[in-house]
Amino acid sequence: MSVFDKVVAEDSEFLRCELHILVLTIFLEIALEVPTIGEAPSENGTIQLRAAALDAFRVFNDLCLLTEAHKPLFLKSTGIPQTFGLELIESILTHHSEVFLSHPEQANILRIRVMPFIISSLSEKLNFAVTVRIVRILYTLLRRHLDILTSEGEMALGLLTHMLDQDTALWKRSLCLEVLRDIFVQAPLIRRIFAMYDAQEGRKPILRDIVAAFVRISSENPALIGRGHQSTIPTATQNNGGTDQALLEASGVSGIISSPSASNEPLAGLSTQWSSMKVACIDQLDKINPPAIPDTYIYSLTLTCIGGFADGLAKFILPLTVPEKPRKKPSKQSDVDSGTPVEPRSGIERHASTSFKKNPVPVNPLTLEDHALYEQVKICAGIVDECWPAVLATCSTFLYAALDSEYYHTLVR
Predict the structure, then answer these.
(1) What is d(CA 180, CA 300) in angstroms, rounded to the nearest whole number?
(2) Higher-confidence position of 291 and 263
(3) Is the dihedral of CA 145, 148, 152, 154 positive or negative?
(4) Exposed/middle/buried for residue 126 (C-beta within 10 Å: 0-12, 13-18, 19+)
(5) Cα 194 to Cα 149, 158, 242, 249, 372, distances in angstroms
(6) Environment class of 158 (CB within 10 Å of its CB; exposed 0-12, middle 13-18, buried 19+)
(7) Are 99 and 59 in contact (CB under 8 A)?
């Protein structure tokens, strides 16, 4: 971490030197050269590096080698525990993400060492302690470094989607869905994923595949989510059913939700009492073995992903649909003063004017071609076109499931 701190300081000093070079070149015609002391490979060939950047390249590359149980090239070390190496990699990626975005040699390490290692590891049957740290690194890379890992990100997201299949261990599916939950609440990241993959010819429809996986998850075990002919309250909350029923009916959904009919029914449905975890799997770094996970946890995560997905779209698009307030018309007092008769408005005209003020016609953001966010609007339209059928199918499944008031309100919203 100290070495990477020096890279940040060195980059800042280099920018100051560049400014001085510009000033001196313009006014004194004097050029400065910033010394480099070594070289390193990048995607576009060998590049020259300054002192701290070269140290950071050597240290991070060796850290990756040691984590993969290979011999280091620079550090005098015989080996480190794999979990410790993974934690160090995550710390560097989290606290110095800008270094990897601005230094081609570091980005190259992510492409040729880190991402291949992550993808191959997730395909293996590793223990929980190693897997949870690998998944944390993957989430950090997808969130902060996707722009420099286009092809690798496509493979990783595809693998993440594949791991949601029913034959995968519950704890692995939970880890994957926790990553997706955190991705789906970040609307700019969702738009970037769609623009990089789904909207590009020749690329996999990554976002469409993920929401299609939600459809499969939601419908894989109807009995476990309490799916029936109408919405119901989870069976284990029957003793408190009156409270939940009152809350739901107070919200205007009387007659839609029914209470369970028998007290001896098995546990079924989604409830915050048994379908959530106090500490997410991805944050349990103290565990060697996977923690106890509720059977309905993955379904609650799926519903949360859909909710975050919709909220992100709404918060971006809905403000753009609000029409601008019309300018006030000039006062007709001058007409009165001049003696010009003013015709009184009919009742229909007054009603139409009042109605428009209360309920103005929303603007279609796709008509705002001169707006600074128009390209992002088009991406959102593409997302809706591609993902709406799967979102509708997932919501329809949960609408006939047994949900407590919190999950039901999330679904309806």
Answers:
(1) 13
(2) 291
(3) positive
(4) middle
(5) 15, 13, 44, 39, 19
(6) middle
(7) no
Say if CB 302 and CB 221 are below 8 A apart: no
- Cα separation, 215 vs 325, in Å, equals 41
pLDDT digits (tens, 9 = 90+) for 299-350: 999 999 999 999 999 999 999 998 877 665 555 554 545 555 554 555 555 5
User: Which class for 159: exposed (0-12), middle (13-18), buried (19 or more C-beta within 10 A)?
Assistant: middle
Q: How many Cβ atoms from other residues are within 10 Å of residue 216's Cβ?
A: 15
237 plus 382 within the same structural domain: yes
User: 44 and 8 in contact (C-beta within 8 Å)?
Assistant: no
Domain range for 124 is 1-6+36-162
For the segment 183-217, what is each residue's pLDDT rounded down to a tens digit? 999 999 999 999 999 999 999 999 999 999 999 99
Write phi, then psi, for 270 (nearest 5 degrees). Answer: -105, 125
Q: At a CB cut-off of 8 Å and minimum separation 6, what does 374 contact?
A: 368
What are the DSSP calls for 133-174, one per residue? HHHHHHHHHHHHSGGG-HHHHHHHHHHHHHTTSTTS-HHHHH
Q: Does 344 reside within a domain? A: no
The domain boundary residue, chosen from 162, 197, 221: 162
